[in-house]
Hints:
Strand order of the largest sheet of chain A: 1-2-3-4-5
Strand order of the largest sheet of chain B: 1-2
Order of helices and strands of chain B: HHHHHHHEHEHH
Structural class of chain B: mainly alpha
Largest sheet of chain A: 5 strands, antiparallel
Number of strands of chain A: 5
Number of domains of chain A: 2
Structural class of chain A: alpha+beta
Number of helices of chain B: 10
Radius of gyration of chain A: 24 Å
Largest interface: A-B, 27 and 32 residues
Strand content of chain B: under 5%
Helix content of chain A: 25-40%
Radius of gyration of chain B: 21 Å
Helix content of chain B: 55-70%
Oligomer: heterodimer
Amino acid sequence: MKGLASIGISGTVLAAFAAITSLSIGWTYLRTEAQIEQEVRRAEARQLLEIFPAETHDNDIVDDTFSVAADTPLLGIRETREGYRVRRGENVIGVILPVTARDGYSGDIRALVGIRNDGTVAGVRVVAHRETPGLGDKVDLRKSQWILGFENRSLTDPPPPSWAVKKEGGVFDQFTGATVTPRAVILATRRALEYAASNNDVLFEIPADAS
Amino acid sequence: MSHVSFSQLTLNGLWKNNPALVQLLGLCPLLAVTASTVNALGLAAATLFVLVVSNTAVSLIRSLVSDTIRLPVFVMIIAAAVTVTELLMQAYSYELYQILGIFLPLITTNCIILGRADAFARKNPLPTALYDGFIMGIGFGAVLVILGAIRELIGTGTLFADMQLLFGAGAEHWRWTVFSIDYPLLVAILPPGAFLVTGCLIALKNQIDTTLDRRARAQIEEPIAGSKRVRVTGTIS
């Protein structure tokens, strides 16, 4: 009987602590929820605004999304992700496409590619990667300016075969000690441009006869 | 254990029983996130906070909880403290939260925290338990930061880069480029570098201890082993 009673007490104490700890987590969650959501949006918006600075458009890019299905040809993304439309007045002046380069040196490289409605690159940003620190991670703007080299490029400047690192006859710099990573990002950007070119109507909502 | 002085606790946490260098606890985050000073500092602060909260809570409830269920209760307390920390960091330092990623929830499994709760906090009154959590956190954090600084310096040639992640925009210019290199010493930033630098730190600490020990012993023995002319004043112990 004594054993049973002590099990009862222990059980009750455990349950009480479970309740107290859950309550404290729940309370903190409720208090921080709004702030966290705001931070997530702000972080997202900061990246989008780097590609299309605030003065270039008049819509809220973060809210102007469309979904891009997983395994969309050319984009390489593995799960459904969001793309963004950039508008000025009536016109869609650009889109930001989610892309994934599956041929990185160490796993997938996820990036956002901003493309203007004239087919030029507004900007590319790598959002997640696991490339070698000090070598391949120069695709990250925090480590190197390399990624800015895509700005204003298009499928005619340079023509598709020259979308490669210099070592392989292209026009883009490679990094010392890393060829695979920049090549993956270059090709992913080119594929995004090709995707935008072949889906021009849908993306920029321009009537077919106008283009 | 019940009559521990604060100075003893300080010495223990910072040096004699340093969680990272002597107890060798919590090595997983220690090795994983110390590639730069800012990451190390972020994890150090989070661990310190969790240690203080868990030690405080454990000490407060030490008479309520029987021995049989103490471990599940401690784990619940620690897990709650970690989750709360994670939420707070997400809300107020989102970018750092993204960098620390998985290592933040992993604080739950950091042996230092359960270790201090079980070995110290549950046997001691609130002030000592709280102080023990604080000083152990500082001791662990200090090693994290030193390790992070050394690895950042060797690996990238900078110190205090990206501090704005932790201290806001004003800290951007804290970055101090000590030397610039085209071929960084990668090994320092990669995981093996963490082992190497930690090993050197432990060796250094042991060396200092040995030297201090020898000097202390020499002071005691000298008068006895010395020549007959030595006149000793004071006490020999």
